[in-house]
Amino acid sequence: SRVRVMELELSPSQTFGEIGGLTDQIEEVREAVEYPLTRPEVFKRLGVEPPKGILLYGPPGTGKTLIAKAIAHNANATFIRMSGSELVHKFIGEGAQLVRELFQLAREKAPSIVFIDEIDAVGSTRTHDGTSGSAEVQRTLMQLLAEMDGFDNRGEIRIMAATNRPDMLDPALLRPGRFDRLIEIPFPDKTSRQDILKIHSKNLSLKDVDLNVIAEMTEGATGAELEAICREAGMIAVRQNADYVVMENFQSAVEKVRHKKAEPDTRMY
Ligand code: ATP
Predict the structure, then answer these.
(1) pLDDT in tens, 83-99
(2) What is the reported pLDDT for 162?
(3) CA–CA dist 199, 250 (Å, integer)
(4) Using CA atoms, how far apart are residues 196 and 189, in angstroms rounded to an integer?
(5) In testing the pocket of ligand 1, which one of 227, 230, 257, 268 has its CB within 8 Å of the most ligand atoms?
(6) Sign (positive/negative) of CA torsion 238, 242, 244, 250?
(7) Which residue has the higher pLDDT, 233 or 134?
(8) Which of 57, 197, 237, 243 has the fewest C-beta atoms under 10 angstroms from its C-beta?
(9) ipTM of this predicted complex?
(10) Does the beta carbon of 14 sit less than 6 angstroms from any atom of ligand 1?
(11) Candidates 19, 25, 29, 65: which one to mutate for ligand 1, based on the most atoms within 8 Å of Cβ?
(12) What is the pTM of this model?
């Protein structure tokens, strides 16, 4: 079914308060995506063209999807997510048609935020095995470019995409009038890691837990991993039938979660 490849959410509940760090990046995305929807008259009055497509790039699990959802929340817009890799790998022969349907849906549900995750699967100069993209993937990409060229950037549809592999993207996608605003979403620094840990442990009954120390220990961890650490620390305390989640639980959780990460990763980040 097509339900999986396209995920639709009316005004998601995600807020910026639930995103740790990324303050500058969030402001940049709001200016490019949210304000054209919520304050179109300002852009019109000043004769400013909003950017057409915004590409968020950086390691997996660092908050790209969270930002797109929070923008949709703030703009009271429909969030429509499509996975580039599912589009290419699970819906062979239907890619171009699905892209058409995606934009049709975005028009019907406007104002809307279209979020294409793993866009490199559709718009890659090379495939992961080093061969050139198939004719089918090419057709899907052509359809995406045609849809982007055809819509008005002052309209009620904003388009965002995400990738872990910006180096692999077909330059055709990055031309002016397409994904012409690139924003890096990096690994969180120590202060951001502490922020993220605080967000994901806010419901835990903590006792003498210094999140600053945990942030110190988790250099190179992504937001997704920090969330997993909080969840795991809580589960360890549950197993011990403890009254509180304590520092030692976090230390064990860090070891467990970060150990998994040490396994080989074929991606760039
Ligand atoms: P992918 O490229 O794998 O899709 P992504 O960058 O879109 O990754 P998200 O889906 O936004 O990653 O993040 C995954 C989960 O990790 C989120 O649901 C959230 O719980 C947690 N997370 C990631 N980054 C942050 C952050 N900056 N603040 C709070 N939580 C975060």
Answers:
(1) 998 888 877 788 899 99
(2) 97
(3) 15
(4) 10
(5) 227
(6) negative
(7) 233
(8) 243
(9) 0.97
(10) no
(11) 65
(12) 0.91
